[in-house]
């Protein structure tokens, strides 16, 4: 093995970004780049003597500092669902440091006579026990198998934020999946189709005597195009909750979801980001609603209901200098309630965010964020919370 000294870099346009392909100009390599992902030109590139295989070793050390006005459970991600309301809304200022966002990854490209084989593995330390797989997939020609961004997520339609989960109202999720993609199917539009494995976000009361599982994979699709003025994406997903009732009968509850986003280049190096999401059985995709058992509700009569959830956000980003920029975001998420729903259950949450990033040197950056959020319950009782974040990191 030898370390590449002069690597032949060719540029390929993928979702509005430039990805470096080292071995072959027509490689099938596709990497969807989120705002704070490690840049494609960073890392240690190792190439075999026969030039048929390349490994890229990449990593990032990230140190997070959080100042909280309320003692919210999640520190990496601001979650309006966690904001206490009414008499429980009592300020408890606190301070937190963490290295959970630190990342380590490997990418391998192998040349073959019929096209490149690309493998990506990336981890961080934000899992329940510290270690978590972010991406683990392989790609050959138009097919991708493994875990990466869901087709329902639009990662390139979100500006950089210190907060780990992005704007309130956005959907940013990675799922195990089988995906087929085809470029330029008509008028420059790219199409991707997928079958995704998801764990439904629901809780079944013990009194119901039922169990749940996934019988049918979630079917997803995304259509996108890059324009001179920006980019546009439209996605759909069809999740299905499966289970057996107390008599052992199979129960299937289909859901649906639609998401759309647009990025618009503006004046004086400014940029606008917009996204809207709506559907049933999609609460797991929202940071504020995930893991709270809201995909399915059981009425007192035993009816299985899938409440409508929707969210949206808008961001304006502005570059003050080449290495200094800020963005300002408003985001909202809402979930449908019924007559039998308890009065203190979550109805709506929204946030105002301001982020500023300074590129100190190549690969080194500092980010500062201020977040104010509000939770509103079904009874219209509400509560607010304020958080300040600092993020220091170096990508190598």
**Main sheet properties:** 16 strands, antiparallel, barrel
Low-confidence stretches: 1-27
Question: What percent strand?
Answer: over 45%
Give me the CATH superfamily: Porin
Taken in chain order, the helices and strands follow as: EEEEEEEEEEEEEEEEEEEEEEEEEE
Mean pLDDT value:
87
Supply the helix-strand structural class.
Answer: mainly beta
Overall 3D form: globular
Tell me the name of the CATH class. Mainly Beta
Cα Rg: 22 Å
In CATH terms, what is the architecture?
Beta Barrel
Side-by-side strand order of the widest sheet: 5-7-8-9-10-11-12-14-15-18-19-22-23-24-25-26
Count of individual helical segments: 0
Number of domains: 1
- Count of distinct strands: 26
Task: Work out the helicity level.
Answer: under 10%
């Amino acid at each position: 093995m030898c370390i590449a000294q002069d690597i032949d870099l060719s540029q390929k346009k993928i979702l509005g970004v430039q990805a470096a392909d080292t071995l072959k100009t027509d490689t099938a390599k596709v990497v969807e780049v989120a705002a704070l992902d490690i840049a494609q030109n960073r890392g240690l590139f190792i190439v075999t003597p026969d030039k048929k295989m390349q490994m890229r070793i990449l990593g990032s050390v990230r140190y997070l500092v959080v100042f909280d006005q309320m003692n919210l459970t999640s520190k990496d991600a601001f979650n309006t669902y966690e904001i206490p309301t009414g008499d429980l809304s009592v300020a408890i200022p606190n301070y937190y440091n963490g290295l959970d966002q630190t990342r380590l990854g490997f990418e391998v490209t192998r040349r073959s006579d019929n096209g490149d084989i690309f493998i990506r593995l990336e981890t961080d330390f934000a899992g329940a026990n510290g270690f978590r797989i972010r991406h683990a997939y392989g790609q050959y020609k138009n097919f991708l198998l493994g875990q990466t961004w869901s087709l329902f997520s639009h990662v390139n339609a979100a500006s950089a934020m210190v907060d780990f989960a992005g704007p309130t109202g956005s959907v940013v999720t990675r799922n195990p999946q089988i995906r087929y993609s085809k470029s330029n199917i008509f008028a420059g539009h790219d199409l991707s189709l997928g079958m995704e494995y998801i764990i439904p976000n629901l809780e079944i009361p013990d009194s119901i005597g039922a169990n749940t599982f996934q019988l049918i994979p979630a079917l997803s699709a995304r259509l996108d195009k890059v324009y001179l003025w920006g980019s546009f994406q439209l996605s759909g997903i069809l999740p299905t909750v499966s289970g057996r009732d107390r008599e052992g009968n199979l129960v299937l509850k289909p859901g649906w979801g639609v998401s759309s986003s647009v990025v618009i280049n503006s004046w004086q190096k400014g940029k606008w980001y917009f996204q809207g999401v709506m559907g049933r059985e999609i609460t797991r995709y929202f940071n504020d609603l995930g893991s709270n058992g809201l995909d399915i509700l059981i009425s007192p009569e035993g009816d299985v209901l899938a409440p409508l959830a929707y969210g949206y956000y808008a961001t304006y980003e502005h570059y003050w200098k080449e290495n200094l920029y800020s963005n300002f975001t408003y985001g909202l998420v809402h979930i449908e309630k019924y007559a039998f729903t308890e009065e203190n259950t979550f109805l709506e949450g929204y946030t105002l965010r301001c982020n500023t990033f300074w590129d100190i040197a190549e690969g080194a950056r500092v980010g500062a964020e201020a977040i104010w959020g509000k939770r509103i319950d079904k009874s219209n009782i509400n509560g607010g919370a304020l958080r300040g974040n600092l993020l220091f990191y170096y990508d190598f």
